[in-house]
Design brief:
Number of strands: 25
CATH architecture: 5 Propeller
Largest sheet: 12 strands, mixed
Number of domains: 1
Radius of gyration: 20 Å
Helix content: under 10%
Length: 367
Amino acid sequence: MTVRLLLSLAALFTCSSAFAAPLPAWALGPFTRPAEAQPVIRPEKATTFPCPLRQEAVPWEFYHTFNPAAVLKDGKIQVLYRAEDNSGPMQIGGHTSRIGLGVSEDGLAFQRQAAPVLFPADDSQKAAEWDGGCEDPRIATAPDGTYVLTYTQYNKKNVRLGLATSKDLKSWEKHGSAFTGTKYENLGTKSASILHEVKDGKLVATQIDGKYWMYFGEQQVNAATSTDLIHWTPLETADGKLLAIMNTREGRFDSALTEVGPPLIKTDKGIVLIYNGKNGTDDKRDKDLSPAVYTCGQALFDLKDPTRLIERLDTTFFKPELPWEKSGQYVAGTTFAEGLLFRNGEWILYYGCADTFVGMAKAPAAQ
């Protein structure tokens, strides 16, 4: 076998992802990792902060740093990430989570705040957040520049979708459940994505027919609307049940869960949803993927009727490939997308890796 043939075979295997099914014109991507990619945020054992509830210094990002939101502020990339301390048993959900903030010029090297910016405290949300914590943020930018954060409130018994607002990403006002005032106030859901458009070079929350739109849910995708980005009303069927606009599929990468990811994107072809599909563990799963692995999917919804699903990818467009994406606290592996921003003609995606690290990938934006 000649050296030239060996080199050709090597190139084929190292570039195998390039031979995946091409994306349709409406989808974002393809996304590629940086050369010799490594986690952009890792656990840090040395940083501590005075926990107002434990009344002691806590190493708040000791074990895991993952599942990030991302936004542009003052031209810099700001990532809000979930961090787990060293309390509780060594199992998923056993520690207390808080949300940290990192700032970057290039999207790879981050200067991190020494203390978390959102965390359980002796406040109106203590009963919903202690001692499980504040988890898995997604962020929206209001037209007036206010930042709206949706996140999981977890008290180690129940989860619900919490909401907080900020002007600077450091000081946050908690508003409680995103569905306060509705019968869904304590709905056991933990993920939400708010509709944005590209405006003046960055993502800004946008309305359709005078309303903001949010998709939420895990085992199915549901929808809610709002006039102020704070108070949300879920959409229902005629018989008063939550309206499901997308469901899991047998034999696909999303056979177990369809958990919404980063901001919804308004395009000229429709509304693009990036979501996290969990593969099942039984015979109804995608046999080409590992059982229980989390990979990324995309779906397109109608701009005139945001509850109408037009199309979605049959195969994942981004999945665990690197060792630190495949192994960690979540042993099946994850590329769990939660952060998406637009800068200088590129999409930049931030994702959680095996419930342990934060990774990053980029894609050129279509004109």
